[in-house]
Amino acid sequence: MLFFTLLLGSIIVSCSDAFTCINLSCCRDVDRLAFNRLASTTISDTTTTAEDISKCTVVELKDRLREVGLTVGGRKSELIERLNDYYSQTPVNEEEEQQQVEGKHNDEMVLSDDTTEEDLSKLNVATLKDHLRDMGLPVGGRKVELIERLQNAKEEDILKERLRSLGLPVAGRKEELLERLQEASVVDDDIVASDIIDAANDNEEVDEVEDTNSESTLLDILDEILIHDDEDSVALTDDDYEELNLNDGALLVSRETRRAKRKKYWKAQVVYELLKENKYEKAVKKAEEMISSLERMSKEEDDTEYLPGENEYTLLIDTYSKVGTFDAIHKAEAVIDHILELSNDQSNTSASIKPTAKMFNALISAWASISTTESAEKATAILDKMEYLQQFGGTVKPTVHSYSITISAWGKCHSEAAAENAENILNRLFENYDKVLKSDDDQSHYAEKLTPNGIVFNSCIDAWATSGSNSGERAEALLHRMEVLSRLDEYDVRPDTISFNTCIKAWCNSNRPDCALKAEDVLAKLEKHPEYPKRAGGTLKVRPNRLSYNTCINAWAKSQRPESAGRAESILSRMIQSFKSDAFSTITPDSHTFSSVLNALAKSRNTRYKATKCKSILMAMIELHENEGSRDTQPNIICFNTVLNACAFSAKADEAERRKALAVSVEIFNIMRQGKYVSPDALSYGNMLKCCANLMPPGEQRNAMASRLFESCSNEGLVGGMVLDEIRRCIPPRAFLPLLADLGYDKPIRNRKAHSVELRELPRKWTQNVKRSDMASRQRASFAKPKQQTHEKRRDNRRPKKIEKKPVIRRPGLLFEYSSSGKDM
Description:
The chain is mostly helical. It contains 38 helices and 2 strands. A hairpin with a 5-residue loop joins strand 1 and strand 2. Helix 8 runs parallel beside helix 9 and helix 25 packs parallel to helix 27. The chain is extended and about 115 Å long.
């Protein structure tokens, strides 16, 4: 026994001396090489030339700017110029160079074996991140987290090396590794983790230098000595090691494998970036590559940790849904069917992927984007499948979001039957939620995901708003239902501004004669700022916004009631007064508000001097834009054209009002010609020519004014169908063709009629700036070319003779004297 004790002591002393010598020599070499490299790097950094800086990347330039305390924003040329200015104005002396060398030397000291937390705290964040990247670890977080991550990683690596040398499994967390060492009787129970790590640090360099055979021989000798010396300790045999490996087999597939998580994260981030840029086709291709590469890695490494998980498959299905084609949606369905097969396969124990509600919701959203009745039926079928899986205790259970998307799918069909189906799905949600609340099982967590909220109600109200005939009554009934449910604690339902706005929209789209009155009643209720209790405490105060007023004004603009123009104008006055009195008002008018009121005035048949009123509203709009600094009230081309249209349709008024309307049209058109806000387009010239035809008596004055307008229009390339139609009304037929010839019409005009000139025959430069929608010829019946008529019966094979009817060209005059259509009346 004494012999073995002496032998053990001599072996330990000799080993410790050898370890110390090797460790010291290695440390000296490492320190010397690191210092030389850092010194050269520092000197080169301090003597940086413009050529060296220009070769740096943007990341390197920003790092240098951070080191010297400069801003890092701007382009690469700006970064280079900023660094050149700094180095040219800030010389570095020898003492600063020495301090930089010593500081960088301290940064590299993290590579030494006896590095403590205090040493790591002296390093900057960039150096810590570099070491984390070298070790394959995440680099996000604060400095304290980076230091802790480095310490844990180094301790885990040391423990894994000790376990690997003993033939033990190396998978698991640090606590599991320590427990495994203690169970193997390699260390005593009273040895703490710090002692194990210190001992391993002392011998780490020797383990890299020593040969494997000598290492295993030394361990065998120590095991034999421990067996004879300590009767309580039991050595592990090969069978015991094998049994231990089998028992810890689950730990070999670690859930926190850094490499697999890094691969998945990188691939997913690329897909998310492509989706943000609306590059859906590339996102689908990248997502498919992600799934195939992860499956290939799992097969090559024989490790199921690399298999794509729920997040990866959900992302793939979501990318398919963004494309919005039937082929992509069928691929998404195939992915879900594949996941269902894997989850139902009992023999495949490695497949841990399960279908989730997010996958099915993404598929429902894909079908909802098609906006057809068939796609809404497909979305409903998927919801039925989710409810079926819920009944049998599956992992897939519909959430309130599932019902909301399905209701939205029906709302995009724009029919009364579709709105009925949407409300039926809303009732199914309440039935399912009540069933979950009354169930004996504890499903409180799932009940929170299924709680009806205001979003699902707003989707249903919107479905009725776009349905048509009976939309207003059903939408207001749902709004009243929301107000009732807001007083109940078990529901998360309360009306908001969107709910009221959608109800106003439903009344606006209704066919009832009093729809505008009903819409203004809802707006009046919203202006009282109703309050509703919140589920978590407090109250929700609902206020109107700009859309509330715009929708109501639009309802009056569509109405045929005699007071529609006045009611729309009064709502606009309330908005302007609120905007001027309250600096933080949310109901500021915009260009859409003014254009809707102008449209209501232009279509009104009972408003006198509507041209003057439209002009005053337009001037008020310009005043708000210039004096109050409101960018939303900048006048657009629609507002100016609407005022010209109101002037043109003042033909039935008395002579004084017609003269006033003509003066307003000339003033507004001259403002447009100045180009301060807008420039005239084809519709502007057409409305101006209509004003000439409707408001001026026939004669040389009207012919001269219309000819000048047409000449200016042709020079600007804005001759469209409306312009060609109105110039025929303004001037006599005998003067029309000579006018075209004087302006450059190169077709023969002899023996031609005015109505035979078509828009496509005009020179290209006359029509080059006209929008496609204004190119269509909108000729009146009196000027239109007659259609060809054929015999109803053909008794032989001879071609029937064409019956031509001569066009009736009436004498030019005022609109109400000769117009053959009621459009302008």
